[in-house]
Design a protein that fits this description.
single chain; 2,3-Dihydroxybiphenyl 1,2-Dioxygenase, domain 1; 9-stranded mixed beta sheet; 5 helices
Length: 145
Amino acid sequence: MSALFRKIHHICIVVHDLERAEAYYASLGFGPFYDYPKKGAYAELDVPNPAASAAMRYRCADLDNMQLQLCAPGELDSPQRRFLDEQGEGVYHLGFEVPDIDAGVAAGRAVGLGIIARGKRVDGGGFCYFDTRSEAGTVLEIRTA
């Protein structure tokens, strides 16, 4: 289990206005920002609302030791939209790299972690958002590089 959350990849902040948030972070020296690089279609995709997931907009900035992601969830119902409506802007999740998404999902399930959303691409890469909000104070995600 401990290997799941050892290598941080990114912090994701949910925002109302992506352009305003990006401009502010850029004024502090973050950047350059770029669109989140979608790496192709998913062979498996289990998300609460596929249309909402597809409509989300992300802007990313690579830092020396990790990535900052800004997420504008759009108006459709999604966990990110609900977070924004209920709690306002802030850290939605911490993303960690794992070498094998299937093994990571299995390890999370083995210790009783619920899953909010997950996806796996044809190349074997993917992601999994664990429902750790009540205990960790935020969502913990695993992903492959």
